[in-house]
Amino acid sequence: MNRPEDLRRALASLMPQSLATVSIMVSNDGLDEPVRTICKEFSVDLVDGPRRGLGPNRNNCVSHAQTPLITFIDDDVIAGPDFIRAALQVDRTKVTTGFELRHEGTGQPKVVTPHNASFLGFQIKPPQSRVQAVVMNAAVFPTSALRAFPFDENITYGYEEIDISRKLASNGIQIAVDYSLWNNHHPSPINRKEYATRLVASRIYTTYRAYRCYEANSTKATAFLLTAMVHHVLHLIRIKGDLRSAFRTAVQVRKMWRESQRDQGGRTPSR
């Protein structure tokens, strides 16, 4: 993204917490300047991003990481005052997630905690005995886990956090909750309308993938896909939206799935 002032604020929030054992890296998915200047200003590492969206960019960070733990803070985040210290105390064999304060508008910030996905893929279910979700901007991962089970690079925007959570959980990696981990999130209004249509496709794709691959339940996956598309069409009718967008969503989901199969040499994507 091209939000240099957001990046400057994000880095400034981390500087008072910087410790000798912490490495701060910017994977640049936007224009080279003024990002390069900002990184020099704060003496942080800069690596070229793949410029293909969130999934590829997060994998790029993992490939360059040289620490046993890794956390992802987007450029519209201002770190909580003790986030790094709390992150260094987590169990290094688990994923640990906290919460974020989401600042939108002029009212009080919304507290966003991890919620598991519903049947339709919406993150609305409070975790009971098993957590299968993270708040991405307040989560700490074992770097080795993300090298073994990387982010899906077909997910370029939205729902990559629920997909990676389900992938890791299905492979036996526990997700713990620790509310001493928290950050402030100030979502940027830039390109929100464009992202809205991509979010629907990402939700349907990631949920279908979860049932088909992580749960190995093709019947459930097919039932979900049919239900999700009907649900989307009914939603568009209710809000008097453009029904043609449902077709575009279906095409996008199909494209994402076919690309994931191509990545696996024509096989159904594995865990």
UniProtKB/TrEMBL annotation:
Superkingdom of source: Bacteria
Domain Glycosyltransferase 2-like: 2-89
Gene3D superfamilies with a match to the protein in the record: Spore Coat Polysaccharide Biosynthesis Protein SpsA, Chain A
A Pfam family that the UniProt record links to this protein: Glycos_transf_2
Name of the protein this chain belongs to: Glycosyltransferase family 2 protein
The organism of origin for this protein: Nocardioides bruguierae
